[in-house]
Amino acid sequence: MMTTKTSTNPKSDALDRIAEALERMSPAPLSTPAFESADAFVWQVAPDALLPVSNVSRVEMGLLVGIDRTRDTLFQNTLQFAQGFSANNALLWGARGMGKSSLVKAVHGALVEQGHPLKIVELQREDLPSVSRLLSYLRQSSHRFILFCDDLSFSHDDQHYKSLKAVLDGGIEGRPDNVLFYATSNRRHLMPRDMIQNERSSGINPSEAVEEKVSLSDRFGLWLGFHPCSQDEYLDMIRGYCAAYGLTLDDAELRAQAIEWQATRGGRSGRVAWQFFTDLAGRSGLKL
Length: 288
Known about the structure:
The protein is an alpha/beta fold. The protein contains eleven helices and seven strands.
């Protein structure tokens, strides 16, 4: 006859269940990642993990037209860091679609091709509260890392910016020597202009009302501005794509189609230029 085992200590069983639930909520700490497995990683939380990216979506630096001075400045700053010298955190801000994130990835790719063992780790804005844990993992490594946050901005009730200060220059430990932080944003001060004006006009002490948040952008040693491109720059971008991919088309016809395309989009940018070229390549039977 089969007997069923019953608990003789209900309190002990309850404690065991609570312990198991806590283990599920707080998984074991992340083991040391195999940074040699890739040059790029994506940080995820719950549970913490650094996921390798084998094929980074990037364009060649030579295809980034109209941002020569900005490109050279960021490349030199990153090269200094890759070589073990001092370098600044960088904020790339300005017009949409003008190659801010593309430039960060292109600079990293160019330095890797030159033989510099530089890693890039992408951090999502909503995961900023976990950045102290990420830095503790990176600090233990002998590699050098670009910590990259794309499309960074904050609203009036957003407290994530406090976590970012530890990355830039805050805290007792400060930023690890082997980590450099690059961010892109459409906003120079990482927050809407109307929010800054409203807080200054309604605050008890107007100068202090926005100082804490505005000072965040001041912690970036490099401010690199991106501005809307001219029509000539827009056309040069498209011609550069055509040359790089071997697509030939009468220049007058190319110009007419490109201008018509940008008119339907209501503006010009590097993103619009690439979207036009993608459409043109597809109609021409060219696989990208």
